[in-house]
Amino acid sequence: MRRCAPLWCKSNYSFLEGASHPSELIEEAQRLGHASIGITDRDGVYGSVRAHIAAQELGVRLCIGSELSLDDGTTLVLLAQSRAGYANLCRLITRGRLRHEKGRCSVSYAEVCEHAPGLIGLWGGDRSALVARHGYRADVAQQLREAFDDRLYAMLTRHRRAAEPAQEARLKERALALGLPLVATSEVLYHMASRRRLQDVLTCIRHGVSLSHAHTAIKPNAEHVLKSPRALEALFEDDIAALERSAEVAERCSFSLSEIRYRYPSEKLPDGTTSIEWLRTLTENGAQERYAGTLPAPVREQLNKELAIIEQLDYAGYFLTMWEIVQFCRVQGILCQGRGSAANSVVCFCLGITAIDPVRMGLLFERFLSMERAEPPDIDLDIEHERREEVIQHVYAKYGRTHAAMVANVIRYRARSAVRDVGKALGLAPTSLDRLAKLLSHWGKTDMATLRDAGFDPEVPVHANLLELSEQILDFPRHLSIHPGGFLLGHEPVSDLVPIENGAMEDRTVIQWDKDDVEAIGLFKVDLLGLGALYQLHLCFELLRKHSGIELSMATIPAADEATFDMICRADTVGVFQIESRAQMSMLPRLKPRSFYDLVIEVSIVRPGPITGGMVHPYLRRRSKLEEVSYPHPCLEPVLQKTLGVPLFQEQVMRLAIVAADYSPGEADQLRRDMAAWRRSGRIEAHRERLLSRMQKKGISLEFAERVFKQILGFGEYGFPESHAASFALIAYATAYVRTHYPAEFTCSILNAQPMGFYAPATIIDDAKRHGVRVLPIDALSSQWDCTLEPLGSLEFAVRMGLRYVKGLGELQRACIETARQSETLGSLPDFVRHTGLDVRSLSHLAEAGAFECYGVSRRQALWQVRGLLREREASFELTPVGRRARFAGLTPIEQIAWDYRVSGHSPRAHPLALIRQELTRQGLPDARKLSALRDGSRVRFAGLVICRQRPGTASGVTFMTLEDETGFANIVFWKQVFDSFNVLARTASFLGVSGKLQKQDGVVHIIAEEAWLPQLDTPTLVSSRDFH
Fold first, then answer.
1. Which residues are CB-contacts of 337 (< 8 A; sequence separation ≥ 6)?
2. pLDDT tens digits for 300-348?
3. Collapsing DSSP states into helix, strand and coil, what is residue 310?
4. I want to staple 646 with a disulfide (CB 3.0 to 4.6 A). Which of 404, 559, 619, 684 is the partner?
């Protein structure tokens, strides 16, 4: 068998072109007997890290390169021969990307020649100038030849197409004239021939056509599969030397991503001061402030330990950067707070990056940083979301565009996007595809039952193809987006490490790797994350200062407020950060938090880690004194004492491994990282035997050890470190406090901070009204852009809805209204129309929202008058009305609410179900408030608006649903069999009725559904669903 290498392979990171994951190409190459493979994605190195990891694990030589688009419409494949060549490749792609808007790239031949050192050029293929009948330029070819010297090859490719013999003849003739050696390979687009159909569909999606209209856009055969060495030998039997040369080319490509040596940028320091000295000074100063001048001995010991590790690992610059960003936020009055594993660090606490004292809470520093740790630390900085862009632009300004770029977020196909895009490529009707997509959850997949429910027939070939291909395409990259706030900063230009391209947002540049890639290569990522709750708190504090003279901040909110914890224990937490979801509300009356640490546990316990590990119910029973607190072994008491002998946090699992299984702190952190990757890598199994056997040797039962291991797997899905939970608990408590004591200010601020949180504005408004907050409608005279407070009496305020809630109004319309208000009197509807200059659509929406009722005109009258006033404005002179005024019937109360929802998504006038309560009562349907007064086990029928449907991965197919009426919420539990019996109705209805059995336990009320139905009403609700999955 001849030595050869497939050098021109495109993975699915050549977006909507390659039909295999990088790892699939590597695995198949190894199975077929290839020692080397080239991954050359289109205009980028997007999939290189994933290919690199797979190649290292399987012992395959990986040649990293890219197929470059040239400015004459042709292509050239480049491979990185050395580290310098890889840097040149990244710089070249960056130049081609940054000159275009997102998604496009082109470079000139001159630029290719400029970046040729360290690169190997493969010139050929059906889109190259070397095979073109027209457009070939000998002078350009000679320039390439001189720039690359002996590193330019004529790429001989065969895919059994009719045009190839003539193309091959031209290639050989020109190669001979230039003295270029031939190298034989083929363009690989998928690892197995069965992916050919998917590749056709991807091509159709990329070009925006259906298969029936794709014509020559799709490949004519399945010859773009990854071939075995024997198959390639048969294909190129007439030129074996060219085939064997492919292996020689691969051997010349000695570069590996393992060679990347990353240096974090140095901070500007006082003269003569080193980074670690300056960090130590800042930390000491901060410690004096945090501990009022007297450092406890454990704090001093921990500080010295952390600073020593930071110095040894040369990470001081990273901490100084985060300190500088926090200082910028403080100076600019931007709320921010560090969280995640950084809260385990007393250095971060003393620098003011985090707000949790890790020594007092006994947090594990090794969860954040250790000598054995093979990855850089990760500090997440939460910033109020409306002001995060200021911080992002500050980072760009400080480090420059060459040394700072944002980390990518790869948008992947999920069930809904898959069926829509695949179905469109197959030529199916958009309405049918939309119907199917609405029956799917974001994270599930299409199955035959759902296909049939949507009106498709799996026996029909095209429908069967839809089912198969939409499943194959799941998790494929669709396009590149930007990470919510991850920055890559470099001492050297970032484009020497990875290409940079323009983001869709103005003034944003993004690298071609996502956060997992960055972590895998060992690069430092600075996370500047937008958090709506911080912005809401900022707004709330401003409202209190402005209207009531109350100075409040995160630091001055009274601790352990009884009224706040009373509200939390009642699960009265709509809009409260982290504890407002259905699952959290169901847990609150059971856990009954009465302290800050209780809140830390509450934030953490409703997560897959504790649930999968079977730790939730034992903890609740012990907390309620229904079960004795015991420890599997005396050595575990210090580890588990805070959580009553039950491990709930990642740090506890790590400490447990240290104490009970003799792991070192660094090994325990490796365990934590393997938790997160267990589904992808299977590395967690290596820990299983070690943990179980060592725990049993210490006298710990096998049953407990198995439960701990199950919890480890659960943490791999999603589990909170204690430090992360504590940071979030601070914000949760703050939002709960202001909701308890300042409901109007809380409501106004959360409405102005939208979009954020778990609930739609309509639900927030209705909840506020149930708590005595008066909400006033949108008004052309009284409403500002944002919601505002209007005094009702002594220190009492109503919330006036803002113009921002009128659909169709944006920043342009806002500017028109605010400018008119500054210079003109808008005392009448004609004044408003004349001076604001708004168009008919904006004015009509304001009229429909009732904003002009302040002028004494009804909504229908306002709609009519607006059109006449616009004609008058356009005519530049006053028109004389002819005939009688038009008369319109007033809207009924239910129509008013329906119009409110249609143009503003809410109604301050009444809940949609309040006006039909009598009709619902006649049908024997109670409201949500009355459900709690019924006996456990009662048979009930209930109807409400669907505001939430969820099927957690830990729930074994159980679906949870929240229905809302004017008095509150009702939680519904659908067992899988019941949900499947009413699948279409349960997935799609916005107003739903359920029959079932009432379950009451520990103050938590559920209806265990047995039947779902559509309420039959004489009066329609006229409101669409607020549901999300």
1. 354, 355, 381, 382, 534, 554, 727, 730, 731
2. 999 999 899 888 888 888 889 899 999 999 999 999 998 877 778 899 9
3. helix
4. 619
Provide the 3-class DSSP secondary structure of residue 888.
Answer: coil
- Give the model confidence (pLDDT) of 151-164 as tens digits: 999 999 999 999 99
Q: Which helix (H) or strand (E) holds 153?
A: strand 152-157
The gap from C-alpha 277 to its chain's centroid, in whole angstroms, comes to 38
Phi-psi region of 125 (alpha: psi -120 to 50; beta: other; left: phi over 0): left
Q: Across 65-69, 865-869, 884-888, 893-897, which has the greatest mean pLDDT?
A: 65-69
What dihedral angle (degrees, nearest 10) is formed by the CA atoms of 419, 421, 426, 429? 80
CA distance 627 to 645: 11
Describe the strand order of the beta sheet including 500-502 as a list of residue ranges: 336-339, 380-384, 525-531, 477-489, 404-412, 509-514, 500-502
Collect all residues with Cβ–Cβ distance below 8 Å to 436 and sequence separation of at least 6.
419, 423, 446, 450, 451, 454, 456
What's the CA dihedral at 92, 94, 99, 100 to 10 degrees? 120
Going 645 to 651 to 655 to 660, the CA torsion angle's sign is positive
Nearest to 95 by CA among 121, 69, 123, 130: 69
pTM equals 0.86
Structure tokens at 736: 């709960």
CA torsion, ordered 800, 806, 811, 814, to nearest 10 deg:
-50
**Helices 722-741/743-752 angle, 10° precision:** 120
d(CA 631, CA 506): 56
Task: For the chain, give the number of residues.
Answer: 1029
CA triple 454-460-464, angle to 5 deg: 75
Per-residue DSSP letter, 131:
G
pLDDT, tens digit, 9 for 90 and up, residues 163-175: 999 999 999 999 9
Structure tokens, 660? 């009970």
Q: Give the residue among 908, 897, 779, 893 at the shortest CA–CA distance from 846.
A: 779
Q: Confirm if 419 and 433 have CB atoms less than 8 A apart.
A: yes
- Residues 6+ positions from 563 with CB-CB distance below 8 Å: 740, 741
Which amino acid type is present at position 600?
A: V
How many Å apart are CA 582 and CA 960, to the nearest integer? 8
Cα angle for residues 383, 385, 391 (degrees, 5° grid): 55
Tokens in use for 463? 């429908």
Q: Using CA atoms, how far apart are residues 7 and 142, in angstroms rounded to an integer?
A: 23
